[in-house]
Amino acid sequence: MATSAQAVFKDIYVLADNTPSMGLAATTAGVTALQNATSGLYDGSCAFACHIAGNTTQTDYYNVAVTKGIQLRIDSVRNAIGSLLTNAATLNASSGGINPIRFALYTFGPTAATNAATQVSPLSSNMATAQTNATNNVTLMSVTGQGDNGTHTDFKTIFAGLNSVIPNGGDGSSQANSLKLVMFISDGENDSNVTPCSQALTGARCQEPIDVSLCTALKARGIQVGVLYTTYEPITSNSWYVSYVQPYNAGPFSPSPNSVIAKNMKACASSGLYQEVGPNDDLTGALAAMFNSYLAANGRITG
User: Fold this and answer.
1) Which CATH number fits the domain that encloses residue 251?
2) What Rg do the C-alpha atoms of the chain give, in angstroms?
3) Ranges 53-62, 163-172, 198-207, 227-236, most confident
4) Which of 28, 124, 132, 175 would disulfide-bridge 279, Cβ 3.0–4.6 Å?
5) How many domains are contained in the chain?
6) What is the C-alpha to C-alpha distance for residues 281 and 255, in angstroms, rounded to an integer?
7) SS3 content of the chain, % helix, strand, coil (to 5)
8) What's the mean pLDDT in 150-177?
9) CA–CA separation, 276 and 266 (whole Å)
10) 5 is a domain residue
11) Whole-angstrom Cα distance, residue 142 to residue 67?
């Protein structure tokens, strides 16, 4: 049985991007199915299941996806987090009652009005409660209409908020001095009102790959960063994608070595803690692989 001397205390903060772009269908077949399902609707065909709330004149494509049984990327992310928490519960159960692994869950907020790291499950070793919170709260951000899909992926604000609530990383010798890890799941494309910007759009709106310095700020405080990049897939039928995202996204499928988005996401990750998943890839397996790499590098609980 594990003893307190064997335990390495770890606090893990999962940051799940739930902005509108994570409403892309999880598979290439799903993208086509969603486009077909929405082609005859008033708002027109769309590859993204925009979650339109409180608007009686436009169709909520998120509900269309649910009705048609089309799994979205945010659904895959939620399922992967649930599986991760199950694995962590098993590890804690083998620790002789010490429960050295704790998780906290964050999203970018429930609605488009939110631009902040939003806690949906507090730091705790109670994985069952965390799973319930994930099921209920790791859901697609809602918008007010089809024209309200921009400036809701504000990485600068999100990371600043997360940086302010996570203590400095410790050596893992006690819960008060625990190791710290951020597990960041996203398609890696910033869309916010920020300057300077490598590709300014309307006014101060900026759509560009994540700024690597945001991750560097966490690392400088002894916090490791794991990155699961859900590839920003080419939607070449969408003029906005072609004009503003495609210039950064030369690689159409995972892995995408020519994609600046992928390059920046990988640079954000601590050594050995990067995974990239494209359409039809196993997101749950990729997140588990990252977690296992982290455990292998930072001490594993033994039964």
Assistant:
1) 3.40.50.410
2) 19
3) 163-172
4) 28
5) 1
6) 11
7) 35, 20, 40
8) 92
9) 9
10) no
11) 17
Distance of CA 294 to the CA centre of its chain: 18
pLDDT at 192 over 80: no
| DSSP structure string for 1-65 | ---TTT---EEEEEEE--SGGGGBBSSHHHHHHHHHHHTTSTT---SB--EE-S-SSS--HHHHH
The whole-angstrom separation of Cα 224 and Cα 183 is 9
Share above pLDDT 70 across residues of the chain, in percent, rounded to a whole number: 85
Q: Kindly report the backbone phi and psi dihedral angles of residue 183, in degrees, each rounded to the nearest multiple of 5, phi listed first.
A: -105, 105
Is residue 303 in some structural domain?
Answer: no
CA dist 59 and 57 (Å) reads 7
Three-class SS state of 203? coil
Least confident residue range of 45-49, 202-206, 219-223: 202-206
Q: Two tokens at 220? A: 């400088």
Q: At what angle do helices 283-298 and 73-93 cross, to 10 degrees?
A: 40
**What are the tens digits of pLDDT across the range 233-257?**
777 776 667 767 777 776 544 445 5
From 122, 121, 30, 123, select the one nearest 75 (Cα to Cα).
Answer: 30
The token pair at 294 is 């982290």
237 domain residue, yes or no: yes
The type of residue at 49 is A
2 lies in some domain: no
For 168, list phi and psi in degrees, rounded to 5: -60, 150
C-alpha torsion angle, residues 172, 178, 184, 185 (rounded to 10): 80
Domain that holds residue 115: 10-297
- For the record, the structure tokens of 23 come out as 């409403």
